[in-house]
Amino acid sequence: MDLTVRAAELTRRRRAFVRATVVRAQRPTSARPGDCALVLDDGTIEGFVGGQCTETSVRDAARQALTTGESTLLRVLPGTAQTFPDTPGAVVAVNPCLSGGATEIFLEPQLPAPMLVVSGSTPVAEAVADFAARLDFAVDRPEPGAAPAADAVAVVVASLGGEEPGVIRAALDAGIGYVGLVASRRRGADVLAQAEVRPDERARVHTPAGLDIGARTAAEIALSIVAELVQAIRRENLGSPAAPIASPRTAVDPVCGMTVTVTAETPHLSDAGTDVWFCCPGCRRAYQKEHATCS
């Protein structure tokens, strides 16, 4: 599998994933520096960064990286050994099942670009779309009357037309956290009244949209709006998930005590009708020896 092509496909589909790259490894670990994999938001691993025990630690750390949006250096160590020197920003996973060696894996979350819906075809709308695209926003320009994209984090209404109240109402009903209306304070109040904006929704509506920088031209107004969006994303966590992007099922390996992510590839067996999950085939074999009725 060409992981570069696969990563591009996931990006086009706006699916979150983590790029995992082995940067250091000690024998007898099976991974080598340069090995890489993609960890999807459901815990699926495509590629190779080590055996099943290592993959368990990678899945867990990848979920955290997707939640925070921050890159992480994962250090997977056997038993209680701490053979790599401490590194700020590194996460240590002590894996009792590793037969030896240690691995350092760089985890880089790849999150979908924030989706911005721009309503209207005015000079301000065109400038907002242009500025936002330059900052790697995914910009949607829907047809009049179309519902906002399901994963949009912001809607900017710069149409100066009669559909403004409907667009604002649809954005608020969709739960979008930032709704910007390009209008004077007086006209903005009239539009919000027509949209029947409730008091508990008012904080999500920004009118006049944008930071107060004394903007006059269409480009300056667009700059102030995009700057306000960046501020909302970076300082107010606009669009950030309040919980892990994916919460796959987990189970505790009864042999080694490790928490494992349950996927189609996770070793397991049935004990008296109950599924038991393991970090690796070795733990499963050890369990079978003690429980002869397992299947």
From TrEMBL:
InterPro entries: MoCofactor_Util/Proc, XdhC_CoxI, XdhC_Rossmann_dom. Residues 12-75 form the XdhC- CoxI domain. Pfam families: XdhC_C (PF13478), XdhC_CoxI (PF02625). Residues 116-229 form the XdhC Rossmann domain. It comes from the Bacteria. This is Carbon monoxide dehydrogenase accesory protein. It comes from Rhodococcus ruber BKS 20-38.
